[in-house]
């Protein structure tokens, strides 16, 4: 959107506003989230366990993890508030817990999706899609994974499609 000023030049109209809450802590705090949103987990998965589960399963969705997807996971671990809140020994422990649960629970992916708070669900879909699209494409098994988690997360199809379409544009170049 643009508007013309008195000289006839076009000035952009504001489309975006600054974030209202700039006091957000750089680390993720499950207790603060529960207090703020009234969140109660639907399963025995913690938020970091569920988050890690979805990220790892996304990367392995087609049975192959190319270098681009490895790099995207490393980058996500550095910038994600959920994963940054976990030190390396605890992350290794979470990985073991996730692996054990997935080995013994046929519905582990669904459980992990249901363990996440509603306001975090679009974000985890975006993270998973970003990992899957890091190599420039979306294999049939990867598309099927996104369809499954969209349903398990309870996201509307049009919202999920919008998220993934934006990431497809981002990862095109």
Automatic annotation (TrEMBL):
Q: Where are the transmembrane segments?
A: none
What Gene3D superfamilies does the entry give?
Answer: TerB-like
Q: Domain Co-chaperone DjlA N-terminal: where?
A: 50-162
Q: Which InterPro entries match?
A: DjlA_N, TerB-like
Give the protein's recorded name. Co-chaperone DjlA N-terminal domain-containing protein
């Amino acid at each position: 959107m643009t508007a013309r000023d008195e000289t006839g030049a076009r000035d952009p109209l504001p489309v975006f506003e600054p974030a209202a809450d700039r006091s957000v802590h750089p680390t993720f705090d499950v207790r603060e989230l529960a207090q703020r949103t009234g969140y109660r987990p639907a399963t025995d998965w913690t938020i970091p366990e569920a988050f890690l589960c979805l990220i790892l399963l996304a990367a392995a969705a087609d049975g192959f993890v190319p270098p681009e997807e490895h790099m995207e996971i490393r980058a996500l671990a550095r910038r994600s508030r959920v994963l940054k809140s976990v030190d390396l020994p605890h992350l290794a422990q979470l990985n073991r817990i996730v692996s054990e649960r997935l080995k013994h629970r046929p519905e582990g992916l669904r459980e992990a999706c249901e363990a996440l708070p509603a306001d975090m669900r679009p974000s985890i879909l975006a993270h998973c899609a970003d990992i899957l699209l890091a190599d420039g494409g979306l294999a049939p098994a990867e598309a099927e994974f996104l369809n499954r988690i969209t349903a398990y997360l309870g996201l509307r199809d049009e919202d999920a499609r919008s998220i993934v379409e934006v990431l497809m544009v981002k990862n095109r170049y």
